[in-house]
Amino acid sequence: MTRYDLPATRDTVVDVLDRDTPPVLTLDAGDSVTVGSLEAAGYLEPMRTPGEPVPRMFEGGTGHCLTGPIAVRGAEPGMVLEVRLESVRAGPWGWTLAGVKDNPLTRRLGVADGPPAWLLWDIGEGTATDDRGRTVDIAPFLGVVGVPPVEPGPHSTVPPRAGSGGNLDCRDLVAGSTLYLPVTVPGALLHLGDGHAAQGNGEVAGTAIECPMTTEVTLNLRERAPVPGIHAETPEGRVTFGFDADLNAATGDALDAMLGWLCTLFDLDRTTALALAGAVVDLRITQVANDTWGVHAVLPYDAVRSVRGVRSECEKPDVDPRKPERKLRETEWKPGTH
Fold first, then answer.
1. Sign of the torsion formed by the C-alpha atoms of 236, 238, 242 and 248
2. Are 190 and 83 in contact (CB under 8 A)?
3. Is the residue at 132 inside a domain?
């Protein structure tokens, strides 16, 4: 295994997703890379006063400032890219902005006509304090982890996509999580960025605590996955996603994928899987900030416990990817084994 460093520079960042963008780094499956990313707008320095113009990586940029693309040798469409988030460290400053977009939600809340509101944050070890003296706990994660759409040409970084990920804005994807993405193009071409020091489920303001980030990831390839589409294993549990402009449709897609996972784990028919899901699966609004809204379904590892001393397939696998694997029983499933 080789370890790389990939800082955010003018030569290593983009603000669109495009399958034809040459990779800025190519590595082998199993390698790790420590990736630096600017905050979403690509600011090169913190604001001293709310809304103050500061230099940006892309003046007039149209999308998130993302680091990449990172290619993985041997990745081909139809495979699954495994992104293991080893560590996620927020930078020392950040910002939050609300009331800047005119959309149905801001009109419903009575803030579409402005003026916008800014909060500027000093980020420390475990907490962030805004410019008005209020402190919140932080739980850093990347808002954008994704690969380009299969269609050629530049694509916006703003909407999340069921086929390639991107702007998921899922607060559950903290350090220790593994995200599984369909490989859409040769090399996979992973993009990372949009660091959030803290965010509530929903990202209801349209932004979180937007901040620079340093993220270490280990990348692997899998031939197949237990469920199709984007899914994850987080420190809390197994996660499936749905994305749609219609929140009802996004909910149905997230639950549909989770039922498939339950069927695989417990050898159930779909109706019985739905009955079990009614007792143990949580549905969470991922984000309502990006026109294409998100819902994720969560199956906690301890939701279905052992019976008569037999380990439940739902329990958290006790395999550390950096340690030798123990032999698993045929009924067990662990991260990275599909």
1. negative
2. yes
3. yes
Closest CA to 180 of 138, 136, 233: 233
Helix extents (H) in 198-316: 247-266, 270-280
What gap in Å lies between CA 310 and CA 290, rounded to an integer?
44
CATH of the domain at 141: 2.60.120.580
Q: Are 206 and 289 in contact (CB under 8 A)?
A: yes
SS3 211: coil
Tokens of 240: 């499936």
CA distance 266 to 318: 18
From 134, 276, 295, select the one nearest 203 (Cα to Cα).
295
Q: Tokens 């702007």, residue? A: 167
**What is residue 255's DSSP assignment?**
H
Has residue 141 been placed in a domain?
yes
pTM of the model: 0.90
Residue 153: phi and psi, rounded to 5, are 95, 165
**Nearest C-alpha neighbor of 65 from the set 8, 110, 21, 105:** 8
Domain assignment present for 51? yes
Q: How many CA atoms lie within 13 A of 60 on its CB side?
A: 0
Asked if the structure places residue 109 within a domain, the reply is yes
Both structure tokens of 205: 């303001």
The dihedrals phi and psi of 280, each to the nearest 5 degrees, come to -130, -15
pLDDT digits (tens, 9 = 90+) for 121-179: 999 999 999 999 999 999 999 999 999 999 999 999 999 999 999 999 999 999 999 99
Domain count along the chain: 1
Match 């780094």 to its residue by tokens: 25
Tell me the pLDDT tens digit for each residue of 270-285.
999 999 999 999 999 9
Report CA torsion sign: 329, 332, 334, 336: positive
Domain membership of residue 75 as a residue range: 3-222
In this structure, are strands 127-130 and 135-137 parallel, antiparallel, or unpaired?
A: antiparallel
